[in-house]
Amino acid sequence: MTIVEGIETRGMRHCETTALGVLLRHEGLDLSEPMLFGLGAGLSFIYWDSKSMAFPFLGGRVKPFELTRNLAARLGLALRIEETTSPRKAWENVAAQIDAGRPVGLQLDSYHLDHFQSKVHFGGHVVAMYGYDEDHAYLVDTGQQGGAVRTSRTSLAMARAERGPMTARNRSFTITPPVHPPRWQDHLVPAIKACADAFLAAPIANVGHRGIEKAAGQVPGWLLRTERPERDLPQAALLMEKAGTGGALFRALYRDFLGECTGLIDDGDLRTGHRLYGEAATMWTDVATLIEKAGESGDAAYLKQAGVILHDLSRIEREAMQVLRQL
Fold it and tell me: Where is the Butirosin biosynthesis protein H N-terminal domain positioned along the sequence (predicted)?
């Protein structure tokens, strides 16, 4: 068995920030999960639907791995990424890092992992790997998935090689800080403004605050969008609240990030943005609850109410980002 010593196997709420936390703590940089999420400008929104999809998807963050790229670039961290179509090379890339005493991040499809009870394909899942033996790989996943877990090397290879939406070609990555540790506090305002700019200037109508407004118009008709509303609507609500989002479709994480920032920066606009995202987080949880009730009861009135709240959310998040952009 080969295990990287001194790994803190702390499973947090979101997969990518959990993996980043493991890698960065090993390098001596210990940041909270909301801080990792915020410095990586992770918040976004997308309403995603197409004829090929069984049911629409509400996404609350940037694309998989974009958060990691943002964080590394902002803090001056050396991000080494390796991808390959060769299963042998893919394993060698990972084993070499573990043998050298360094944990490694992996992007893969969670469907194949032994510890996942919910068998749904998601190619944007991220874990940290810190050891292996002849049969198993030792991983850190979210707290919801068990934190310190193991999966067979066979299942890991399948998860890494899976092709489909959001997948990567056996992607593995390591992070190395510069010789002089970054003063991350200096990067809070640039990260907030970058996130606000991207949210407000989304190029298509189903992203950012315009995407939330589109959802406000589409969600009331969701009972007619599926033949299995009793399955699909509660599943959508579950994905919003508990599937690694930290609650409220990532708005709780961003609220907490802004709250930490208010303790470091004395700024009225920042406090306003924090207050507005506190309101938004509560309202997103209300939306998820209403969607779940609609699926269980078949009553479209719940979805109509959710649409009204989503309309308000589009305005509130637009106002919050407009204020935060002025920092």
Answer: 14-142
